[in-house]
Amino acid sequence: MSKHLKVALVDDDIPNTEVLRDFLIRNGYSHVDKYHDGESFLESLDRFDERAVVLDFDLSGGGELNGLEVLEAVKERSPSTHVIFFSGQDSLEVAVESLKNGADDYIVKSNAAFALVKTSLDKVYDIQILKLNERRSQRISWIMAIGWMATIAGVALYFAGR
Amino acid sequence: MEIIDRLSAGDPEKKKYYIRLFLDTLEPEMENLKVADVTQHQEPIRAILHKLKSQVQTIGARGTHAIMAQHEQTIKDGGQIDQGQLDETCRQLSDLIENLQELLK
Fold it and tell me: Is A58 in Cβ contact with B24 (below 8 Å)?
């Protein structure tokens, strides 16, 4: 089943990013962009960005910004964007720091890492579906409320006119 | 190679494509490691080890990955690796590259 969640991979590790992209596409994520440095990703980011971002911590092979700096910029520009840290740093300090700064998850690169990224994206996808359903039911409630008010006003006008 | 095998799903050309992708990084970075000077500041060595570590792991070379992770941690903690350790890492990488090149034939 194709999942309508756009994903951005930000990692300076070119072969692993390519393999992860193919892995996610095979698992239903049809729209996966790749960026090999934080700067080019941030250029592509807009205020209402609905993509989930899989972000490496050490981007030193790409540009000047590290993952935490990119995370900070993402949260400033597009607070609702979901960010999953995907890092070779098996460090509790980095993990805590990234979660404190608004990351949704922290995954250490390991043999099972690609599957963990997919699981984390699945959670983001579920949250988006829930939010979408919530917005839909809010809209339906509003329409029903307006309908009731119009009916009551109509009845009131009818009796006022008699 | 498990993930690559799974993704290429029996398509030999796809598998070769992935192997070439990894070789494009592994070969030049191994050359950089070979000429690295262990008597100088070892941050450049750590950066190369960090970069290659994940790739070696995806390929499935667990032993080489463990050694690289250990050396990276040593340098990160302020320690140093010696020439023998660097040579051994390069030898393991070289074997891995040879194996990958064999798969391309």
Answer: no
| Helices and strands counted in chain B (H then E) | 5, 0
Contacts of B7 in chain A (CB under 8 A): 19, 22-23, 26
- Choice between A144 and B2, residue whose per-residue pLDDT is larger: A144
Of B2, B24, B55, nearest to A16 by CB-CB distance is B55
**Which of A38, A90, A106 lies closest to A67 in space, CA to CA?**
A38
Q: Pick from A7-11, A55-59, A136-140, B8-12 the range whose average pLDDT is largest.
A: A7-11
Q: A34 — phi, psi (to 5°)?
A: -120, 140
Average pLDDT taken over every residue of chain A: 91
A14 touches chain B (CB under 8 A): yes
- Type of residue numbered A128: Q
What is the spatial distance between Cα B59 and Cα A64, in angstroms, rounded to a whole number? Answer: 28
ipTM of the complex in this document: 0.85
pTM given for the model: 0.85
Distances (CA, A) of B33 to B37, B44, B88: 9, 9, 11
Residue A49 CB coordination number (10 Å):
17
* Whole-angstrom distance, CA of residue B30 vs CA of residue B52: 9
